[in-house]
Amino acid sequence: MQEEETTIPQMVDEVRAGKMPRRQFMKRHVVNRVVHGNQVSVEWIATGTHSGDFPGLAATGRSFSIPGVTVVVRHNGKITRESIYYDVAEVHRQLGAN
Fold first, then answer.
1. Measured distance between the N- and C-terminal CA atoms of the chain, rounded to whole angstroms
2. 61/24: higher pLDDT
3. Best CATH choice for the domain 2-95 from the list 3.40.190.10, 3.40.1380.20, 3.10.450.50, 2.40.50.140
4. Mean pLDDT of the region 50-71
C-alpha cells in the first residue's frame, strides 16, 4: 500500500499538475490503481487529524478516515477529464460539522 500526505481538495490540483503536494494533517493510502487504455482509476483512503482548514470548516482536531476515487482520462498526452469522488457529508459528519 502506498502512503502519501495530501488534502482531499488538492487531489484535483495533483491530477492537473502531475504533482503530489504534501500536507501535514492528512495521509492518502492508495488501495487500488487500475489502468485501462487512456484511463487511470485510483481508489484511496484519506486519514489524519483535522488540524488545518477544510473549505468551510475550521480545524477541529478530530480524526477522520474518508474513502474516495480519482479517475483521470488522457488524450494525446493531456488530461481531458478528471473526476474525484468522495462523500463530503461523511467528511462533515466525522469532523463534527452541523
1. 33
2. 61
3. 3.10.450.50
4. 84
Q: Which helix (H) or strand (E) holds 98?
A: none
Residue 43: strand, helix, or coil: strand
H/E stretch holding 86 reads: strand 78-86
Q: What would the grid cell of residue 7 be? A: 488534502
Per DSSP, the three-state class of 21 is: coil
Residue 95: CA count within 13 A, CB half-sphere: 23
Is the pTM here over 0.90, yes or no? no
94 near 62, Cβ under 8 Å? yes
Give per-residue pLDDT as tens, 33-54.
999 999 999 999 989 888 876 7
